[in-house]
Amino acid sequence: MTKYDLSSLRYCTVAGEPLNAEVYNQFLKLTGIKLMEGYGQTETVLAIATFPWMEPKPGSMGVPNPTYDIQLFHAENRLCETNEIGEIVIRTDKNTPVGLFSEYYRDKELTELVWHDGFYHTGDLASRDEDGYFWFVGRTDDVIKSSGYRIGPFEVESALMEHPAIVECAVTAAPDEVRGQVVKASIVLAQEYRPGTPVLAKEIQEHVKNTTAPYKYPRIVEFVDELPKTISGKIRRVEIRGDAE
Q: 33, 41, 152, 235 — which has fewest CB within 10 A?
């Protein structure tokens, strides 16, 4: 980024992929600008955001758009408490909010799958802190279930991104006979660290253990030249998961 003149920037927003705290901190260091993250879907308008009058928290999506009644729905069929992980849902039993899609075109079954019991179910997991800020965890399909633990890939990716060798990464589940699933990290290295060695892989694993929790570290570390992405730049984790199966 130091190759570019960013002096004309005054205010910057980001969406589409979760914002790692390390990316936020590096951008702030280089530009003096605090990235303002927002969350939405094709089915919604901006649903959660760090609004201009708010102080951003690195790694947080912000707070709910006031036009939406947003809750977190626990796997135990109840609303979440503070710092519990649950699915982001939008309440629709009182009214249908402006900006929320009406249906999936010619797909009644899929529409009813996500829109029922007075809520629209986004399929995205998050937690909410004491200040009401939301923290993205991952898609329900992306959460890794290993030895009874539920591990959100975004938290592991955030820890990985703090390591100087890593330019980009994606965390997915890999099948395991004993644990059910284990954490797999697909990593694009900085040029000076390529092609990568078992010693470096071990160092990265220890870094994640120390940054998060021992049970969250990637038992499989794969060094790749690039990650599969959509045309808009989102990482295709489903493709990486398919390679592991």
A: 33
For 165-183, the pLDDT digits (tens) are 999 999 999 999 999 999 9
Portion of the chain with pLDDT greater than 90, in percent: 81
* Neighbouring-strand partners of residue 116: 119
**86-96: pLDDT as tens digits:** 999 999 998 88
Q: In the structure encoding, which two tokens stand for residue 151, read together?
A: 């591990």
Token pair 């951003």 in the structure block, residue: 56
Overall size of the chain counted in residues? 245
Where do the domains of the chain lie, and which CATH numbers do they carry? Answer: 13-139 (2.30.38.10), 144-244 (3.30.300.30)
Alpha-carbon dihedral sign for residues 3, 8, 12, 17: negative
Residues 109 and 115: their CA atoms lie apart, in Å, by 10
